[in-house]
Structures are given as structure tokens and as C-alpha cells.
Amino acid sequence: MSEPRVSVRVGSHTLSLSNLSKVLYPRDGFTKGDVIDYYRRVTPQIVPHLRGRPLTLQRYPNGIDEESFFEKHVPKGTPDWVERCDASSSESGKSVTYIVCNDEPTLVFVANLASLILHVWTSRIGSIDDPDFAFFDLDPGERCTVKTLARVAVALRATLQDIGLQSLVKTSGGMGLHVVVPLQPGYGYAAVKVFAEAIAHQLSAVCGPDVTLERTIKKRDDRAVYLDYVQVGRGKTYVAPYSLRARDGAPVSTPLDWSEVEAFTRKRTDALPEAAFVAYRMRTIFKRIEKDGDLWGGKLWRPQRLEAAIARARSSFAAPA
Q1: H helix intervals, the chain
Q2: How far, in Å, CA of 266 to CA of 151, rounded?
Q3: The pTM is what?
Q4: Axis-axis angle for helices 43-50, 104-112 (nearest 10)
Q5: What pLDDT, in 10s, does the model give residues 221-267?
Q6: What domains can be seen in the chain, in order of their start residue?
Q7: Would you state the pLDDT for residue 92?
Q8: Closest CA relative to residue 70, chosen from 58, 55, 88
Q9: How many Cβ atoms sit within 10 Å of the Cβ of residue 51?
């Protein structure tokens, strides 16, 4: 027999939840009910990072070992009260109607769809052509140590500081790190991409063999960090802070203090990022939140202007080869 649906009230909305005992993380025993409970508890931290952004769901209806799929378009049966927006990526030009997650009821609704991973645009619907942060994806190769990854992240922070910019860092929830520079309004995707590319080339010059900009995986040194600046663009997404990932242990994409990244630079050279990041999981995240709050939230998210930074970069960075 199939499990009966459970009706719950979230805010002023009634939601019908189903298959709450369905195991989504087999090695850990975490169920869909656990996932929904996690997203309900983390609502105050995650919703500010989702609000106003086109949302792409990565759904795992039969758990992390089985097939998953991305869902951009609003799923059939989505309640009328769920906010949505029409947006097109530059690649296709076709308009897609996305969910916009502005509140706890919407978050619970998408969690009930077994949406483990939440991907959002880097711009919001009021200014869809202007990203509100520059995004750097630090993706370590299979043999890259956490020490190397952290060293590259700290070098990226220093490169940005040298031109007057402050940055924030989080785990990807997998093996990598994400670094962002919050931006004041008014910079289009093309301008931010040019800026990100200049930073990437400078970092490559500073870090030497520790960094690769090679897009073809087979051509990369698997001990290096791939710095992906191509992810800047209309319709490109990133994993939201506090999103779960579909890996054993239910890791969370976790905002970090830079001191934590600095500590990783002092780790044993053979420790891999996945082993070093075991603390950042669904079962442990709330102790961090209780202690530190959202390390990407409130006054810590300081939007900055780029003009002075770009002028400094032009005078101090070597031109890309």
C-alpha cells in the first residue's frame, strides 16, 4: 500500500505532503520527511538567498542512487499561490516560467517534490540582466588536496583585496569552494564576465600550476583547481547557500568564515576536500547557525562598486596571454 498523504499547514497555506518515509539517502537513512524538515528549519537562512531569483530544481524522486533530473519550468500541479516569473537564457532565447521561492510554504512545496538541490540565477527578477554578485567556482581535480584548494581560495581573496574588493566564501556542498563578490546594481552580465575573466587570469599567474583555466577536463592537471569564470552569464545558475547536495552524509553548501579556509591551508597535504568538509552536513549545520548566524547574511553581504577595482586591476594586472 502506498503511504497516505499528510496535509500540513505552513503559514496560511495547506500543503499535501506525500511519501514522507521514502528513503532518499540510503547509506544514512534520511527520508523525504527529513529533507522537508531540514528545509523548514533552515528557512530563515536560505530564503533570503532564493528570494526573487529564478529557481531550478534538481529532483531525486527515488533517492541519490537513482536517476535525477533538472526542472526549470514550473511543475504541473504547482499551487496558484507559488510565485513564478518568465525569463529566458541567452542561449536559447526561449522563455521559461520558473518558480520563485520567497517563503517557507514554497520551500516546503519544492522539498516535497524531492528537490534536494536548489539552483538559482545570480540576478533577481527586478533586475534580471544585472547579476548582484560576481561568482567564482573553485573546482578541485580528483587528486587536488584541500590544502591546495584552500591556498587558491585565499590567493583569490588576496587578489580581490588588492583591488579593494571584499569577498565571501562557502563550500559547494561537494568538493569545491564558491567565492562571491557582492555587487551594487547596474553591472550587466557582460561586464561582470569580463571582470571575472581578468581576475581568473591574474589568479592563474599568481598561483601557477595550482590553478588551471583549461575547460577540457582531460587536459587539466588533476592536482590543480579549475577556476570556472564561464559560469557568469544570463541563465547560468549556482547552488544556493544552505542547499543540500545529493551525496552520502547529506552535505550542505555552507557559508564559511575565511579563518576556516585559512585553517585548511595548514592541513596535511594529502587530505582531500571531501574528507575535510565532513563537518558541513544537514545534521550539524544548525549548531553553526546558532553560533554564527548566516555568514553570508545581513551586514556581511556588502554590495560593492567595480569601477575603482577595474581601474586598479588595469594598472596592476598583467594582460591575459
Answers
A1: 32-41, 43-50, 104-112, 146-162, 189-207, 258-264, 273-276, 285-292, 307-316
A2: 9
A3: 0.95
A4: 90
A5: 999 999 988 778 888 999 999 999 999 999 999 999 999 999 999 87
A6: 6-121 (3.90.920.10), 133-235+249-316 (3.90.920.10)
A7: 66
A8: 58
A9: 15
